[in-house]
Amino acid sequence: MPRTALLAGATGLVGSHLLDQLLRDDHWDHVVTVGRRPTDKADPKLEQLVVPFPEIGALPAVDDVFSCLGTTIKVAGSQEAFSSVDHDAVVALAAQAQRSGAQQFLHVTALGASAGSRIFYNRVKGETERDVAAVGLPTTIAFRPSMIDGARDDQSRPGESLGLVAMRAVGPLLGKYRPNKASDIAAAMIREAKAGSSGNRVIEAGQFGRS
User: Fold this and answer.
1) Mean pLDDT to the nearest integer, 41-60
2) Residue 180: how many CA atoms within 13 Å on its side-chain side?
3) Residue of 27, 83, 85, 86 with fewest CB within 10 Å of its CB?
4) What is the Cα gyration radius of the chain?
């Protein structure tokens, strides 16, 4: 049966890997991206929609929705601006996905996500998980990576780069806290989507697997 995937955040680090994998995978014959700007990809099965996040607007009929939306407080400029992307836009996407008939919503949050956390970043990620699950989609899966490992083309994050160098050096000692390759996160999202399990679940960093 023809199957449509929708991806938000396709220009980001994980999202760009995920878009490549979706386009290569015959499980989906149509891939729709939503974002503030289109990607530079061109493919016969790719459709690109530009939306003014955190507003989403009506979506086409879709089966599986993937969200790789995310920013940092430094890039966003304030806690409120950060929340509008990492919480408001993701929850709005889930709500529109339900209206469009989606069966699955898979999204990237963060290791330590908890709505009760005293750490602002982790609290927002946990609130996002909670509110996405409350939308009522048949399946929601939250992926909680550690620090994400990969080359970023869109912006410089020197502190993060130094942290990655240190964490790579001691990776085997870190267990679930070792960096996760962006490509591995994307592959885990593809794998879970194709498995088709129902309900609300969380996939922790140590369960992603490695390439």
Assistant:
1) 93
2) 29
3) 27
4) 16
